[in-house]
Design brief:
heterodimer; A: 372 residues; mainly alpha; ABC transporter involved in vitamin B12 uptake, BtuC; two-stranded antiparallel sheet; 17 helices; B: 516 residues; alpha/beta; Rossmann fold; 6-stranded mixed beta sheet; 20 strands; 24% strand
Chain lengths: 372, 516
């Protein structure tokens, strides 16, 4: 509605800039493209080498899976720190199943996903019904799952020779130049992104994170949704474990160590609010892509290890500061718009004025994002 | 659609009881709402109205008593169950999702679905616009709920409840933040819902609204059912007497106080987009009323004076000494006290005990060797809570379980404990019932009599006219009139509140309660 946000208050150019800033996905994508371009200029093989293109797409696939699951959890104002341990456990399970049984590949993949979902279910039950903060619960299960993994695997290590050829091929083959594992990650990303945008359940995840008390009063099934988010996060971590086994061909007891924080970082960089209620999996996936690519390209650019870590940290801090600034600015704009109109409800004669369809492009750019 | 004009009561509550720990919130709650009627539920603060409503809504479960809905015995364990059964509730305080759009706030959990169980955003927005048209308001359904005024938030709550197509609609003070026109529209919608054969429960502290809208009225007092009458067979005086169990002598017990020296001196205060060139003084013993429409900038001025919000130009002096901007702590030290409008969010630590809350601002003075003991807190809080007749059985009761009126008293007690020179109070009786209202008014009057300077922001015209020694009217961020008590009339205050150039047509939108 044109009356609600005065389009004349800002020039078109300003609005374009504002929208660009507000669209985190685009901003991250631009940084990513620049990074790839600069690195490729420095060293051709980064993109055009024999494995350059493949590695560029393949390496982020695991973190994308984890970041997508993490986003669903963070949106509900929770966090899942156990995904790294879950991923390690399922990677090892994958190897063991190939060694100990003759299950077909598809069954092994399913077993990994199911195990991840089961571990996620434990988290979800404890958080949703135990009413304990997710940070504490999943910190605990992170150690428990890792401990279980270490006990189970011992000093054992799964080697490439233990796994069938067809499975390892999944980690290297491509379709139309896109690695299969990347296609898997993108398919999951699209499915979850579609669900969060268009399904009632998906929207309720946002509602719960935005105001948990209000969600209860709305009669939403808060516990069930939170449980679902944790199960999804666990299942995707399980899938990530299988993907990791296929990608690297070996499984050691360090698989997935520390990756849970990378997943949180990817989500935050991608514009997912750490206190829930807003953000998209598209942004989180781009954040994951950016994080992985930074780690691969900074050595090419000749930047030392310390600075690699510092750059990642600066990105995360910068993302959060940017969020804060944007939210404050939006809030002030909305309040100012309200004051200059002396309230949207204080206008017009008391007759039932016609409601103007509010599809004027640009004029409601402030709010479109929220509906999306 | 639910069946129209079904005979018999929609809702029957009989001798419902509910306790929270040792506190009995509801001794014997009874309420029978007929289909096709609008039923007023009135009572003092803490009378148990909200508790009764929350039992119907499924927020709380009753300890005992009869609860029938549409002739069936029910026992809701969640809000989802009551919603599915056909009960819609508008709560006193809006409960919205700030990150989500207005339209999603209305339809969350029951969005219209298109092909493949996809949410049909187009249909959802059309439906929201139809609802807003029915309510006669203009709110962009696509904008986020964040930053909406309380009135707009309340409108969204109402749209949400109406869209539920419920057999029973409960409205817990829906008009507290609405303007006159909005109230009229809400009432028109309520009447049309009644004519469709639904039952409505309307909780309000404004008698003119009760008499205007409702056909039956039930009075509650101290958690107990008192009486049910046809609205035509009763009067305001009779209802007030039943609510308080005694005659309210005078709603505005204003006593003449000796006006002393200037306490607060504000010169040329400006903040872009909020208010401009605001200059006024408040003297000792004087109650200055800050009147105006909601959104005129009154609260913003108060917040800037107290140092919560920044301002671009101007200065604030207290007792001749400048008060620094943006430093509430310095303002408190200088002798200012500020009772905010939204007491649940800004005035109280609702999770904490009464004693902690009261002792909150003065805790530095209570410490022994840097440690704060509960005993010291209780000792400091006791006299204040007692003086204000806070109805809690213990100082360690949590503020969150108290009624609005008692919460307000705790907030006032908290500030009086700092022994301020200036009290800024924003909407002192918003959502507070008749009995407590006059207690709050008497308290303000007494405090002024003791030489306290009081700056009172109020949207209720009778309150401003009844309590203030001087009325300052704010319109669109500017002070447009300074009227003495003797000269102030509803007409000249209203005119000043709406006189900004070019917007005279909004005069009827006055968000003030014009005496009936």
């Amino acid at each position: 509605m044109t009356t609600d946000i005065q389009p004349s208050a800002v020039s078109p150019a300003q609005r374009v800039v504002k929208n660009l800033l507000r669209s985190r996905e685009l901003a991250v994508a631009v940084v990513l493209v620049l990074l790839i371009a600069v690195t490729t200029i420095k060293s051709d093989s980064f993109l055009f080498g024999s494995t350059g293109w493949r590695d560029l797409l393949l390496t982020p696939s695991m973190l994308i899976l984890l970041a997508v699951g993490q986003t669903c959890v963070i949106i509900t104002r929770n966090v899942d720190l156990s995904v790294g341990s879950t991923m390690g456990l399922t990677a090892y399970l994958t190897g063991r199943l190939f060694i100990d049984t003759n299950l077909p590949i598809i069954a092994v993949v399913l077993a990994g996903v199911l195990m991840g979902a089961g571990l996620g279910l434990i988290n979800g039950v404890l958080v949703a019904f135990g009413r304990v903060p997710a940070l504490v619960i999943t910190l605990g299960t992170m150690y428990i799952y890792r401990g279980a993994f270490l006990t189970w695997a011992g000093s054992d290590r799964i080697n490439a020779s233990d796994m069938p050829r067809a499975f390892k091929d999944l980690g290297t083959d491509s379709i139309l130049g896109i690695p299969i594992l990347t296609i898997v990650a993108l398919a999951v990303l699209c499915a979850v992104g579609y669900y969060l945008r268009t399904a009632r359940g998906g929207r309720e995840l946002y509602a719960i994170g935005s105001d948990p008390d209000a969600a209860e009063l709305y009669g939403l099934k808060v516990n069930r949704r939170i449980l679902f988010a944790f199960v999804l996060s666990g299942a995707l971590a399980g899938l990530a474990g299988v993907v990791s086994a296929a990608r690297f061909g070996t499984v050691s007891s360090s698989v997935g160590t520390g990756i849970e924080l990378e997943a949180v970082g990817a989500a935050v960089i991608g514009g997912v609010a750490i206190f829930g209620g807003s953000g998209t999996v598209w942004g989180a996936a781009l954040g994951a892509f950016l994080l992985v690519t930074i780690n691969r390209s900074l050595p090419v650019l000749g930047i030392s290890g310390f600075w690699q870590q510092a750059v990642v940290g600066a990105l995360i801090v910068g993302a959060i500061v940017l969020d804060r600034v944007l939210v404050n600015r939006q809030e002030r704009a909305l309040v100012a718009a309200r004051d200059t109109r002396s309230g949207s409800t204080h206008q017009g004669p008391p007759s039932l004025a016609p409601v103007v369809p509010s599809s004027t492009p640009g004029s409601d750019s402030e709010s479109e994002e929220v509906v999306r | 659609m639910t069946q129209a004009h079904q005979a018999g009561p929609v809702l029957e509550l009989g001798d419902v009881t509910k306790s929270f720990g040792a506190v009995v919130a509801l001794r014997s709650g009874s309420l029978t709402v007929d289909a096709g009627s609008i039923h007023a539920l009135i009572g003092e603060n803490g009378a148990g109205k909200s508790t009764l409503i929350k039992i119907v809504a499924g927020v709380h479960r009753r300890d005992g008593g009869v609860f029938r809905f549409q002739g069936q015995d029910v026992d809701f364990t969640s809000t989802a169950e009551s919603k599915t059964a056909g009960i819609a509730v508008i709560y006193q305080e809006p409960t919205l999702f700030p990150d989500l759009s207005v339209v999603e706030n209305i339809f969350m959990g029951r969005q219209p679905l298109g092909r493949g169980r996809r949410i049909d955003y187009g249909a959802m927005i059309d439906e929201a616009e139809a609802l807003f048209a029915r309510l006669g308001v203009h709110i962009d359904p696509r904008r986020p709920a964040r930053g909406l005024s309380i009135a707009d938030q309340q409108i969204i709550e109402i749209a949400k409840a109406i869209s539920l197509d419920a057999a029973l609609l409960i409205m817990d003070e829906p008009t507290a933040a609405l303007s006159g026109v909005e109230v009229e529209r809400l009432f028109a919608v309520a009447r049309s819902l009644r004519d469709e054969g639904r039952g409505l429960v309307f909780i309000s502290h404004r008698f003119e609204e009760v008499f205007d809208l409702c056909d039956t009225v039930t009075v509650m007092r101290d958690g107990t059912y008192v009486s049910t009458k046809k609205i035509a067979e009763t009067t305001v005086d009779a209802l007030v007497a039943e609510m308080v169990g005694r005659e309210v002598a005078d709603l505005f017990p204003k006593t003449e106080a000796e006006i002393g020296e200037v306490v607060l001196d504000v010169q040329g205060l400006s903040s872009a987009g909020q208010f401009h060139d605001v200059t006024f003084q408040v003297r000792a013993g004087e109650i200055v009323g800050l009147a105006g429409l909601v959104g005129a900038g009154r609260s913003e001025i108060a917040r800037a004076v107290f140092g919560v919000d920044k301002y671009d130009a101007g200065r604030v002096e207290l007792l001749g000494k400048p008060v620094p901007a943006r430093r509430p702590r310095a303002a408190i030290k200088a002798g200012m006290a500020f009772v905010p409008e939204d007491r649940r969010k800004q005035g109280l630590v609702v999770e904490e005990s009464v004693a902690r809350n009261v002792a909150g601002v003065i805790r530095r003075g209570l410490t022994t060797a840097g440690l704060l003991t509960s005993r010291a807190e209780n000792r400091a809080a006791g006299p204040w809570a007692g003086r204000l007749e806070v109805k809690t059985n213990a100082l360690d009761m949590h503020a969150t379980t108290m009624s609005g009126g008692n919460q307000q008293k705790v907030v006032i007690a908290k500030w009086l404990a700092t022994e301020p020179k200036l009290l800024i109070i924003d909407e002192p009786t918003r959502g507070i019932d008749v009995g407590t209202k006059s207690e709050v008014h008497r308290l303000l009057s007494d405090l002024a009599g003791q030489g306290l300077a009081i700056l009172m922001i109020s949207s209720e015209l009778p309150e401003v006219l009844g309590m203030a020694d001087r009325v300052l009217v704010v319109c669109e961020g500017r002070i447009t009139a300074d009227i003495d008590r003797a000269d102030a009339t509803p007409e000249n205050v209203m005119r000043a509140a709406t006189n900004a150039a070019g917007t005279a047509s909004t005069a009827t939108d006055a968000d003030v309660e014009v005496p009936a």
